[in-house]
Amino acid sequence: MDLKSTAGKLIQGDVRGVMDDISKTIERTIGLSGIVIISLSSMLGSGLFVMPAFAAQMMGPGIWLAFLLAATVVLPGALSKSELASAMPSSGGSYVYLERTYGPLFGTISGLGLWASFLLKASFALIGFSAYMYALTTYFEFELTKNNLQWISVGALILITVVNIFGVKKVKAIQTPILAVTMLLLGIICIVALFDPATDFSRPLNGGDGAFDQSLATIAETAAFVFVAYAGVTKVAAIGGEVKEPGRNLPLGIMISLLIATILYCVVTYVMMAALPDYWYLTGQSIGGEPIEDPVYYFVKVIAGSKVGALAAALAVLTMISMALAGILAASRFLFAMARDNLLPQSLETVNAKYETPHWPIIITGLAMLLAILFLPVKDVAKLASGFKIMVFMMINSCVLVLRRSPQAQVWYKPEYKSHLYPWIQIWGIVAGIALIYLMGSKAFIGAGAAVALGTITYYGYGRKHSQIRTTPFQSLRMQFSNPTEAEHKLRLAAFKAADLGQKNHLTVPEFINALKALDFNYSNDEYRDIFHKSDADENGVIDIDEFITAFENELPEEE
Predict the structure, then answer these.
(1) What b/e sequence results for 256-287 when a residue is b if at least 16 CB atoms lie within 10 Å of its CB, and e otherwise?
(2) I want to staple 108 with a disulfide (CB 3.0 to 4.6 A). Which of 19, 180, 211, 455 is the partner?
(3) Has residue 557 been placed in a domain?
């Protein structure tokens, strides 16, 4: 890639030209199988390990049908996000699509909503972690009261927050094999359960309390509750720039992973409910009990014995903690992305000089998760997470409808992949989403209202004053930086090196601003940030000193 040519295109506003140049330099290494693995790793977890008992409390043993219905509502959003990702490859994901379509006010509201949905899902995973930890310690006769479960979750939260600040880059490398072994174990247990004489295959269908004995409203309400189980299906869209043949592999991979996840959810919950007695999922196995938080452990223990049940609990502990680790990482990045767009204060986009991680977004996300764990009932955590996710999927569908028809968007909106069944599939996703949120009840409306209120206050209190800045500082600095003398070049290099507190040849936002101020390049704080963002091509919160100077100094002086 010719840096001077690409920078010139950026100055002229030729976004498509810049994207083409950059795409030629990215090594596309992820194939179809990689997409499926990443997507499944983001989905399967709390949806199987914790949610079945709470869903069964709502509609009995026929919960497989709720998982199936939820998948049909997820499908339009998956198709729409595949299209949007092929047109706007960005680490911001859904937030970028919504902000680009509806503007900064809606971007602020949706960004905070996405942040809330991810942190709530991670909180739900930590609640499951503590339940399976209790089952595991009980098996090994280690004294631990159920009153301590909440504090186990809090301790795990503190640990993963610290780990995220230190930097974690291989979460999926750990999570994927653990989840694969767990799914294999569950598959074997399901096969064994099929040949158990106690298994009643009619129970999940119409055994008096099965799927077809429930009202449509009950099924839909339960589908809304389990919706968050599919939340990770489109997460792979954020790395579309690394996918081979993204126009083909990205939508195909998302569809395959959604199909596999749907089959797993439906089959495992069907067999689980058929193999175990009535009300097994409630404490005391009576209709007045509370849902248990470790249904997989109970299922495996009954079918295969305590030893195999303990193995399942150990795998669940590892899966839940790795999911929470990845969840706080993903949630914090929404605050980071919004700060980059000047919708939140600069401190939230400043990465740690030593660890190169956005420590303040991670800490704020950890504190919000702490409040959710301490003060929200388990069921409400899952309901709010599902409610936020349904609203996001609805708006993602609306983005495709708007961008396909907008004359202004036709200049830049040129997706490699276009959603099948347009526009009817998007309309179905929006209408079905509205119905699910309505049936979910007041919790969903309270969550939505809180997100809208907080987003509106944040935008008018801060974002509106900072998001509208001139587009010329980047061009001005390039002109001032170009064709330096040998002395100027050495002075600039020395100033940048001196500002690099982490000694990694990288500059964070404050370090970059300090370097430019030391060199007497005078801009407003927002203009400094705008220059930084345009220079930070991979959007990781730091810029490489040598690359920046090479790109901005058109003709470097010869070294002595």
Answers:
(1) bbbebbbebbbebbbbbbbbbebbbbbeeeee
(2) 455
(3) no
Same domain, 435 and 479: no
DSSP assignment of 154-206 equals: HHHHHHHHHHHHH----HHHHHHHHHHHHHHHHHHHHHHHHT-TT--TTHHHH
- Give the domain extent around 15: 1-26
Indicate if 337 and 438 belong to the same structural domain: yes
**Structure-token pair, residue 406:** 């907008």
Locate all alpha helices (DSSP H) within 276-305, ordered by sequence: 295-304
Residue 212's nearest CA partner among 440, 59, 439, 55 is: 59
pLDDT for 182 beyond 70 = yes
* Structural domain count of the chain: 3
For residue range 490-518, list pLDDT tens digits in order: 888 888 888 888 888 888 888 888 888 88
Q: At what angle do helices 104-139 and 295-304 cross, to 10 degrees?
A: 40
Please tell me the distance from the alpha carbon of residue 174 to that of residue 322, in angstroms, as a whole number. 8
pLDDT (tens digit per residue) in 50-73: 899 999 999 999 999 999 999 999
* Mean pLDDT within 247-255: 79
Cα gap 506→499, rounded to integer Å: 9
Are 19 and 44 within one domain?
no
- Per-residue pLDDT band at 94 (split at 50, 70, 90): confident
pLDDT value of position 136 = 87
Which residues share a beta bridge with 243? 30
* DSSP letter string, 417-444: S--TTTTHHHHHHHHHHHHHHHHH-HHH
**Is there a single domain that holds both residue 73 and residue 202?**
yes
Give me the pLDDT at residue 175, please: 62
Which residues are CB-neighbours of 90 under 8 A, at least 6 positions away?
Answer: 96, 238, 539
> Is 560 among the domain residues?
no
